[in-house]
Amino acid sequence: MLARPERCNPMTDFDPANFANVSPKEFAQLVKSTPDDKIAEVMSGDMRGKILGEVFGRMPSLFRADRAGSTNAVIHWNITGRADGGTDTYEIVIENGACAVSDAPERDPKLSLTMGPVDFLKIVSGGGNPVMMFMTGKLKAKGDLGLAANIANLFDIPKA
């Protein structure tokens, strides 16, 4: 009888120090190929801050100013499930055809999105359906729901 090979676990082998070298498409594949429980485990550990920092840090470069038109908005992303039970909040400001990100929100949001870390990574990697997540309560949106429906159009989201 042949021994079953150990299943490779990409997310736990993932080194955030090398994250800058991972393309958005490779990241999408990584999220897609990693079981939800392993993503949850990683996102409740020491790597959470680095992963969130890298994901949000890339948003300005993935922003599609040509699709934004006259959109001016402040969006708060609230990622729940921190090891201490807390939430990480990032602020995205879209104005004058540019996108800026901060991990220290200062402005009142036009839209506030709240979700767990697994659903967040699925959304930003193109592997999750935000509308279905909203309908099933996994994603909570407060404020401008029209803006919420249009966010995906404002960024180049990879498809895994």
Automatic annotation (TrEMBL):
Species of origin: Micromonospora eburnea
Domain (SCP2): residue spans on this chain: 66-156
PANTHER family with a match to the protein in the record: SCP2 STEROL-BINDING DOMAIN-CONTAINING PROTEIN 1, STEROL CARRIER PROTEIN 2 SCP-2 FAMILY PROTEIN
Source taxonomy: Bacteria, Bacillati, Actinomycetota, Actinomycetes, Micromonosporales
A Gene Ontology cellular-component term: cytosol
The protein's name in its UniProt record: SCP-2 sterol transfer family protein
Domain of life (superkingdom): Bacteria
Record-linked SUPFAM superfamilies: SCP-like
